[in-house]
Design goal:
There is one protein chain. The chain folds into 2 domains: 78 residues, NADH-ubiquinone/plastoquinone oxidoreductase chain 6, subunit NuoJ (Four Helix Bundle (Hemerythrin (Met), subunit A), Up-down Bundle); 41 residues. 78% of the residues lie in helices and 0% in strands. The protein is flat. The N and C termini lie far apart (55 Å).
Length: 165
């Protein structure tokens, strides 16, 4: 069953990545990227890496994607959705909401699964303290370079937005 679960998530991540690259609307591309990041987080959960899944959702799908969407809307303020385009998507939205409710009702009615311990971790390996020590000792330079890269990207976006107005 785990292999089916893995291939379903992998296929969903690949399809969302293809949709992200092929989408013409930048906001839709960013939202497809959020879907890819959530698929990766669920894959981390299936590997019993709860901390990595949490970081994946909070840092990447949360904070960085909010930053991306903020920059996208700042660089392209005149592109608005018309009422006729939104009205055409109402049946799809209602259908997806109904499908979600059906799946949620099946999940809530099913008995709780028996959870087995996947693997025992040696003491000091994989806990938050070990990750923090590694992050701020061995990986301090890549961590700081990444933060500097994000700062440069944000300043560049502000400069580009300033030139357009």
């Amino acid at each position: 069953m785990e292999i089916v679960y893995f291939f379903f998530l992998a296929a969903a991540a690949v399809l969302l990545a293809i949709a992200m690259v092929s989408s013409r609307n930048t906001v839709h591309s960013a939202l497809f990227m959020v879907g890819v990041l959530f698929c990766v987080a669920v894959l981390f959960l299936s590997l019993a890496a709860e901390f990595l899944a949490l970081i994946q959702v909070t840092v990447y799908a949360g904070a960085i994607m909010v930053l991306f969407l903020f920059v996208i809307t700042m660089l392209n303020p005149g592109n608005e959705e018309g009422p006729n385009r939104i009205a055409n998507r109402v049946p799809v939205a209602v259908g997806l909401a109904m499908a979600f409710l059906v799946v949620a009702s099946f999940v809530l009615r099913s008995p709780a699964p028996q959870v087995a311990v996947v693997a025992q971790v040696a003491p000091g390996v994989g806990n938050l303290e070990a990750v923090g020590v590694d992050l701020f000792t061995q990986y301090l330079l890549p961590f700081e370079l990444t933060s500097l890269l994000l700062l440069v990207a944000m300043v560049a976006a502000l400069v580009l937005a300033k030139k357009r107005t």
